[in-house]
């Protein structure tokens, strides 16, 4: 499985932009896929920015801004997962001038290449920024990059895409357009996820499309309660982002099945049919994949988690949750020692 066609597409964008100086945002393994070499072949001058975390800190993005201003590039190229693309978008947000972004996503999960949000953190607490100008002007969907993705990362990022599409569908901000993206993404997930995680290369293109569609859905509707519940699980217990969202979704879904109004229950029943998965089925799938850990917390950690739920995201949820609801949901899967 070669990516020559995608490399040529990447080169074409650079040529069409007449870009000669490239600010290249990616991980330390920045040339696994040949994109840095492609720029050198075009005779471009390249500055590689790799000094950011898997969940980019605002301080790292600020350093990126400083480095970019010194280099004065024509375009930003971001090659990597959601962290690399969000870092590039964060740099653009804090930069005092406009610059185009060319994104090459290398995971099937975040959808960052089509969203207006840059997911950033400040001392491991979420501090995202948002603006319509942050949507990359260009994206190259090189699904061959999924060949090198470690198994756990494949699972976690794909679960993030699933949560994006599910949450965008149930979000109070959903529209006919966003629901269309959600359903298309959920159907691809239902058809491809199990084969994808088992290594079936024929699913790679579809799963990258699943991620893109989910990204388009949340760009309109935003996420809902599961993402809001996930952040402290990531910070305090080290769960990967997509894993934390999926774990949260299982128990929020179960809670809504029991206590939500009939309209919400009907919507959830419809989604069960569309994605061919129930809350119990998702729980069983996570267990079988080894990504549903037993979570224990101290009393202080538990109440930090309860009080740390993102209020903006939870307001999008179809069922309104108060602190008692939040505590009950967390108590259903967290053991307090």
Can you describe this structure in just a few lines?
This protein has a five-stranded parallel beta sheet with strand order 2-1-3-4-9, with helices on both faces. A two-stranded antiparallel ribbon has the order 5-8. The protein has a two-stranded antiparallel sheet with strand order 6-7.
Describe the structure.
With 337 residues, the chain is of the alpha/beta class. 55% of the residues lie in helices and 11% in strands. It has 14 helices and eleven strands. The strands form four sheets. A five-stranded parallel β-sheet has the order 2-1-3-4-9, with helices on both faces. Strands 5-8 form a two-stranded antiparallel sheet. It is globular and about 60 Å long. The mean pLDDT is 96.
Explain the layout of strands and helices.
Blueprint: H1 4-16, E1 21-26, H2 35-41, E2 45-49, H3 58-71, E3 75-80, H4 82-94, E4 101-105, E5 117-118, E6 121-122, E7 125-126, E8 129-130, E9 138-139, H5 151-170, H6 176-197, H7 204-221, H8 225-237, H9 241-259, H10 262-275, H11 279-289, E10 295-297, H12 299-307, H13 311-314, H14 323-331, E11 334-336
Parallel strand pairs: 1-2, 1-3, 3-4, 4-9, 10-11
Antiparallel strand pairs: 5-8, 6-7
Helix pairs in contact: 3-4, 5-6, 5-7, 5-9, 6-7, 8-9, 8-12, 9-11, 12-14
Oligomer: single chain
Proportion of strand residues:
5-15%
- Largest sheet data: 5 strands, parallel
Helix content: 55-70%
Strand/helix succession: HEHEHEHEEEEEEHHHHHHHEHHHE
Shape call:
globular
What's the average pLDDT? Answer: 96
Radius of gyration: 20 Å
Q: Which residues sit in consecutive blocks of at least 5 with pLDDT less than 50?
A: none
């Amino acid at each position: 499985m070669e990516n020559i066609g995608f490399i040529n597409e990447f080169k074409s964008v650079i040529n069409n932009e007449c870009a000669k100086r490239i600010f290249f945002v990616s991980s330390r393994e920045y040339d696994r896929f040949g994109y840095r070499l492609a720029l050198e072949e075009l005779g471009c001058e390249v500055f590689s920015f790799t000094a950011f975390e898997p969940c980019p800190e605002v301080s790292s993005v600020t350093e990126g801004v400083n480095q970019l201003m010194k280099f004065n590039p024509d375009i930003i190229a971001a090659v990597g997962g959601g962290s690399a693309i969000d870092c590039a978008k964060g740099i653009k947000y804090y930069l005092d001038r406009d610059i185009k972004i060319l994104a090459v996503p290398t995971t099937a999960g975040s959808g960052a290449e089509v969203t207006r949000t840059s997911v950033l953190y400040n001392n491991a607490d979420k501090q995202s920024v948002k603006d319509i100008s942050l949507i990359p002007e260009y994206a190259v969907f090189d699904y061959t990059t999924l060949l090198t993705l470690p198994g756990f990362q494949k699972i976690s990022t794909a679960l993030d895409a699933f949560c994006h599409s599910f949450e965008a569908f149930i979000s109070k901000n959903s529209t006919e357009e966003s629901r269309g993206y959600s359903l298309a993404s959920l159907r691809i997930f239902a058809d491809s996820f199990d084969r994808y995680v088992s290594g079936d290369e024929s699913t790679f293109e579809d799963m990258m499309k699943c991620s893109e569609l989910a990204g388009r859905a949340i760009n309109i509707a935003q996420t809902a309660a599961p993402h809001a519940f996930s952040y402290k699980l990531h910070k305090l217990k080290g769960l990967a982002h997509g894993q934390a969202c999926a774990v949260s979704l299982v128990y929020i879904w179960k809670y809504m099945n029991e206590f939500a109004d009939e309209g919400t229950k009907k919507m959830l029943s419809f989604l069960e049919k569309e994605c061919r998965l129930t809350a119990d089925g998702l729980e069983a799938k996570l267990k079988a994949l080894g990504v549903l850990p037993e979570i224990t917390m101290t009393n202080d950690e538990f109440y930090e988690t309860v009080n740390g739920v993102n209020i903006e995201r939870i307001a999008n949820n179809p069922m309104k949750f108060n602190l008692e609801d939040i505590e009950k949901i967390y108590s259903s899967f967290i053991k307090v020692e």
